[in-house]
Amino acid sequence: MNIVEVQELRKQYDPPKGVLAVDGVSFDIAESEIFSLLGPNGAGKSTTISMLSCLLHPSGGDALVAGHSVVSEAQSVKEVIGVVPQDIALYPDMSARENLLFWGRMYGLSGEALKKRVDEILELITLADRQKDRVEKFSGGMKRRVNIGVALLHKPKVLYLDEPTVGIDPQSRRSILDGILALRDQGMTILYTTHYMAEAQELSDRIGIVDHGKMIATGTHEELVKVVGEEARVTARVDHYLEGMAERWREVKGVEKVDLEEDEAVLLTEDPNEVLPRLFEAAAAAGARITEINVTEPNLEMVFLHLTGRALRE
Amino acid sequence: MKLAWILARKDLLQTVRDKLSFIFILLMPLAFTLFFGLLFGGGSDRLPLAVNDADGGAAAKQLLAALQTSDVVKVTVESVADAEKAVDDNKAAVALLIPKGYSADLTAGKKATLTVVSTEGSSGAATAASEIRSLAGEQVAVELAARAAAQSVWSTRSMPAGAEQGVIAQSAAQARSVTAQALAHPAATVKVVQAGTAAGQVPTGFVLSSPGMLVNFIMFSLVTAGVALIVERRNGTLQRLMTTRVRRWELIAGKAAGMFLLTFVQQILLLGVGQLFFGVDYLRDPEALLVMMVSLSLVASTLGLLLAAVLKSEQALVATSVIVSMSVSALSGAWFPLEITGSAFQFVGHLLPTAWILDCLRGIVVRGFDVADVLPALGVSVAWAAAFFVLAVWRFRLSD
Amino acid sequence: MTKIIAIAWKDLRSTARNMPALAMMLLAPLALAALLGFAFGGGSGFDIAATKVAVANLDRAPSSAGESAGAVVVGILGSSGLKHVLDVSKKSDDAAARAAVDDGKDAVAVIIPSDFSTVIYGGSPLATTQVELYENPTQEIGGAIAEGVVDQALLEFSGARAAAAGALALRAQGEPPPAVLAKSAAQQFTHAGGVTAGLDISQRTPQLSGDQNAKDVSVTGAILAGMMVFFMFFGAANVARTILDEDRAGTLPRLFTTPTSYGVILGGKFASVFVTVTLQAVILLVAGRLIFSIDWGRLDAVVLLTLVAAGVASGLALLVISLTRTPAQAGAIGAGVYLVLALVGGNFTGTAQTGGTFGIVQKFTPNGWLLQGWNTTMRGGGSGDIRWQLLVPLGFAVAFFFFAVLRIRRRFA
What we know:
The complex is a heterotrimer. Chain B has helices spanning 2-17, 19-40, 58-68, 80-88, 102-107, 123-154, 164-184, 205-220, 222-225, 227-235, 237-241, 248-278, 286-310, 314-332, 343-349, 353-366, 371-395; strands at 47-53, 73-77, 94-98, 112-118, 188-194. Chain B is of the alpha/beta class. A four-stranded mixed β-sheet of chain B has the order 2-1-3-4, sandwiched between helices. In chain B, strand 1 (47-53), helix 3 (58-68) and strand 2 form a beta-alpha-beta unit. A four-stranded mixed β-sheet of chain C has the order 2-1-3-4, sandwiched between helices. Chain C contains 17 helices and five strands.
């Protein structure tokens, strides 16, 4: 069952001539699913999340979150969502505990129930021993954990995370990603935005690729990768006579296609493990030496490139 | 040096681009000076005086008439309650209550009493009370002189027993016109000569208060001068500058130069308004004026630099700047003349360069000061500015 | 309601941890009141420094006379009764006296001419003379005081001469010679005490309705009241500015993603401004009482004035925030607005500028009305005596709030 249904969401700043940041984006998120919005900076991911958080009023379209419209039932939507903004949004001169208590009150919790929930969150984010320290004294990773903890206080049905791992060390990133997976396993639905392909690939049940405000593809990783085919890409360089080697490699079993690009050969194959030894054999037989060889499995980067003509990182 | 100048220009450009703040740095003191000048620049107002005459006798009426023709006070006749309220509401500088029996006491040679109602510490009240004392004093002198004349004449004559009072009163009445005439043309009068006004202006309220306002606003601009520096420290651009060819002293000098120019432009505007619109003759000695303007900007910019160097946050800077600028303004005589304060306060005040600068600005306008007269103030200002600058360089942090 | 309290409490706690803010809100007004109180003597009544007067008595007494008239004037100027008002130094000649003024050592020089006694004691009714007062024009007050004293002294002389003229007019044939009669009349005038004995001018503060015993306002109290109202503007601005700070930091938008409504969030911020600045005032009032022994007056008036002042400060601070975009802008513009209001409203000069145009202009500022209210309250007035001093600033506060709410809602809705 879909818990989030986004229907033709549009946002134009300063109409009629202003920037169209989101242009008719539609997607659904099933319960207990991690859905990632993947796209470069400026694609419209944060604007989409802001509309789904009821911070921005859509210029067109609507979205239902747990059955409530973001356009007409904003308060009800806010009851069921937890938002982790991209930048740390905490009170630096307050302790971790004080921050959690305050935000908990803003989410409608109070009394003993609030205190108990704060204790649980502190355990979850493994900061119980630092709960009385002011947030301004925390490392970046610790601040991010409190930032996430705040959004979980009221046990939301849907959690939005807007690029939560930007600018942090690999260890903290790993910790956050593991935490997100654990939340999903406990039944939480998660909308995750990122421009890191590897994160989207690792975390997501389904991915939506956005660019220039439009949703250009949605699906599981496997479904998206099929867009560019299932073949792996092998690039190889030899010490001499590349053209001749390219001809020989065309004859190798398992090689679907060989193209020459500047000083390297680009081969497509469905089974690089089988093909690679044959390529080395062919080179040896021809008296050539392979100086460089790379294998790239089909990935989202290639999907993005295929769909937009640009790399994800441009 | 060139790099310092480039830095100063950048700072000024950033200040100008923040249009709202820029407008306030320049327009607000300008608007205030215009406003204040329009109110007070046209020469002194007559002080409002509320009078209640509960007596109604000849002497009371005479006193009232004398007050009504006075140049110092402007009389309105009120009930006692209204007169008191007028003082309470700041509508009148003082209220004069002439009690029942005033005229009778005067003619009977008894002590005449008057009551002056005023708010404690009001300088307007002191001036009005002085005028009342002067006019009432003259009136009393007429009566007492007539009475003394009558008494001295009758001391040589015999009179029926019990008739003394009546006889003396009658003679005093006869002598009154003579004594009044004599007092209207006194033998000795006061001639007031204002020192230096051969060269300067006769000071009105605005002429004297304009330099104080100038110092007040320039010191207050410490608030904004240092904020940009703190912001730069916080966002890392200051540190980045030190990875370039810029040397530390050039960086600091550039910052100070930007602040100097900003306060100098503010001064030009404020002095220009005073000169052109309200006739405060600052340009009477342009060289002396320039020396004082440079002194004031030196002090303000180096102090602003020191505060920005030492303090961490914008908030701390605003708080400290407000406290420092207010204390300095009060101690220097910008809010009230130092002459009305105690000697200890005056001593402390004159340790500050701004007190010297204020004295010299007033001196230029009113007492005909020239460059030679203002050089001591320049020396004091340069000494303080140098101390601020050295401290600022020593304490300057590139990052938090 | 609990959410509003939670937001207000968070901001209050934040302010309590903010040393610069506390310095501005509490330390600054107390320190400035102490400084200025020290300037003016601190007790009840202004205790200003004695005016420095240089006296050059060039008078040559007529050989038959005793003390010269000039010496009498010098004696009056230097009398013990005037020691707290005039600090007299004698100079050998007029040049030295004028130089003392030109050099800034003395505020005024009194130069008694050489023919002073001759004119005063001489019989010629047409002879006149002038006592010159050479004044430093930047020291008006001292000059006015010296003028007043010299005028008084000259009046006594003129009175004695007038008595002599009167006696001559009354003289009949066969009576003592004119010179004798004239001298007798002059002495009669002088021995009776002159004008000083014949006129008593008492001074008091305005009485409040129904109260015969209005108190004098302590100087430090008047100054602290002015400083308190001024720094309440800054106290309120400090908290109000957190709206902009939090908008930039992201905590305000985050608040808007919670189920707490805009009204409650903004109401909480407004409440935190009001509560903080009220608490600031209470602390200052208590400190004023404990440190400077200031008697603030009747409780009903004090409470109402405090609450209305807090309303004005809060409303104004929120209005400034609503018109600015960044915290730095709000700081610069707010500081300027508060300074101008304080200068026009008399926060720094108190009652030193009274009546006339200034009195009218003060009424355009809410703080001018509040200061009047404090003045009346410290003199013993109750809430009934300060009706307008409460209602008018309250009107200002409501207007400020109204426009602030309109703009802030439009911005964050």
